[in-house]
Amino acid sequence: MIVGSGVGALCAALVQHDLGKRPLILEKTDKFGGSTAMGGGIMWIPASGPQLAAGVPDSFEKGRQYMNALIGAAPGSSPARKEAYLRTGPRLIEYLQSKGVPFEFCDGWSDYHDELPGGMPRGRSVSAKMFDVRRLGAWAPLMRRGAPVPLRATEIRTFLLAGRTFAGKRTAARVAARVAFMKATGKEFVTSGAALQARLARKLLDRGVELQLNSPVVDLVEEGGRIVGVVAECDGRSTVIRSRGGVLIAAGGFARNPLMRRQYGPQPSSIEWTNANPGDTGEMIECARRRGAGLAQMEEAIWLLSSLPPGAAKPFSHAIELAKPHSMVVNAAGERFMDEAGSYMETGQRVYAQGAVPCWAILESRHRQRYFWGRVAPGMTPSAWLSSGYMKKADTLEDLARQCGVDPAGLRRSVERFNAAAATGLDPDFRRGGRAYDRFYGDPTHRPNPCLGSIEKAPFYAVALYPGDVGTFGGIMTDEHARVIRDDGSVIAGLYATGNSTASVMGRKYPGAGASVGASAVWGYVAARHAAGAAGDA
């Protein structure tokens, strides 16, 4: 039995069915797919088949070297779990490809800390290929979706530079042709996480695997020290559903649970800052805890600096924009305190470490002329942004600072130092642009550093930034077989967990694009095999 319907859940169900079992997926909301279907759907898998086929050599040893150098000691990242992840990841991709789920290597999407031993400047991430979601039939409108534009994960970077580069113009033309083809043929292509989830769902539907929506689990059933089922609210009635093979928790984290965020996470926080799916409310973590599960890394999330535009249905996330030239981030003293183009999880951690909630994005006129801000195209600044105070605008830095409540003298000093760095292309304070990942989202037409551009041409703009997220990153403790363990390390028989319901194998770091989706899929695969008694013959 599987609780939740993200990628870990669907992978586990596919494996279980292949092994002769009859999996049941229980999803508490009215749509399936979880946060996976709303996001990039990338999987960070060292030494996968698509990566090696693209001519990018890698190995288990090199992946381990990188994970050890980056993660260090963390409760969810034991040596045994890291080894299991690295050895299982390539097998998982090979298995899914054998079932008709095609992947492409995201060449150039660098590891986020590629400067470390074992880091890969060309990356280790793979993405599911585009899919016509209408092939799901009546289930198509029941799947969660992300962005409506059918942009492949590998196209996002160049598409956003359509006004700056030939590659960007070519990508924009390709996407426009794709949209026109959809209108002409009635097809409805989805990409990224939606493509991954739709492909897996189609495989499960073809096999008759049961997926129940609107079926929240409220408790686990324990007999003789073993988890043997769940109590679920199905059709408004409390129902005990038993499972001989145990229970897999794949229900996400607690990004949308304000009480749990106050109890475990750094403050201030708000559920208004998250982009996690609406069902990410943590009940299954609490259920597992009541049955003795250990919890760890509960203070962490997949942080993503975000802003709150007026009238928007969800926050804007700004990892891409902050890597572009002519922008910087400062605290209330007007001081920079991080590499703005670095790993988005790391930037969120630095905001909290500084007590800089909110911090401020400082944008120069050329940034607004050349680059997207959120989902708004270059050169377009909605009047509501200015009238509401969401975006500040001024002809001098001092006036801009006063509007933001930032120290004017501090901001002036920071800008002068930043401009000197931009002129040389070297950032002595935070090495912005020094990593391949920093430059991945930079502007390749800007010299000498694609991430550094001076802030000197009025008007100037500022936006308050908050430590948003796409899900929490701590939770139930599990072992290398995805079995739930107690604080003393003993196993709770019959109970497994994966995804953002768990304390991540990545610890408190984010190695590269798709580290959370990859881990969810891998441990779903591992759990399904172990529960079926097939763990030793992968």
Question: Secondary-structure blueprint of this entry?
Answer:
Blueprint: E1 2-3, H1 7-18, E2 24-26, H2 34-38, E3 43-44, H3 49-53, H4 60-71, H5 79-98, E4 103-105, E5 125-128, E6 131-132, H6 156-159, H7 166-185, E7 189-190, H8 192-207, E8 210-212, E9 217-223, E10 226-234, E11 237-242, E12 247-249, H9 258-264, H10 283-290, E13 295-296, E14 301-307, E15 316-317, E16 327-330, H11 344-354, E17 359-364, H12 365-370, H13 383-387, E18 391-394, H14 397-404, H15 408-424, H16 436-440, E19 460-472, E20 475-476, E21 483-485, E22 491-497, H17 515-531
Parallel strand pairs: 1-2, 1-12, 2-8, 12-22
Antiparallel strand pairs: 3-5, 4-5, 6-7, 9-10, 10-11, 13-20, 14-15, 14-19, 16-17, 17-19, 18-19, 21-22
Helix pairs in contact: 1-8, 1-17, 4-5, 5-17, 14-15
Overview of the structural elements:
The chain has 538 residues and is α+β, with helices and mostly antiparallel strands. It has 3 domains: 1-142 and 194-216 and 244-300 and 473-533, FAD/NAD(P)-binding domain, CATH 3.50.50; 151-190, no CATH class; 302-469, Succinate dehydrogenase/fumarate reductase flavoprotein, catalytic domain (Flavocytochrome C3, Chain A, domain 1, Alpha-Beta Complex). It is built from 17 helices and 22 strands. It has helices at 7-18, 34-38, 49-53, 60-71, 79-98, 156-159, 166-185, 192-207, 258-264, 283-290, 344-354, 365-370, 383-387, 397-404, 408-424, 436-440, 515-531; strands at residues 2-3, 24-26, 43-44, 103-105, 125-128, 131-132, 189-190, 210-212, 217-223, 226-234, 237-242, 247-249, 295-296, 301-307, 316-317, 327-330, 359-364, 391-394, 460-472, 475-476, 483-485, 491-497. β9 (217-223) and β10 form a beta hairpin. The longest helix has 20 residues, at 79-98. The radius of gyration is 23 Å and the shape is globular. 57% of the residues are buried. The mean pLDDT is 97.
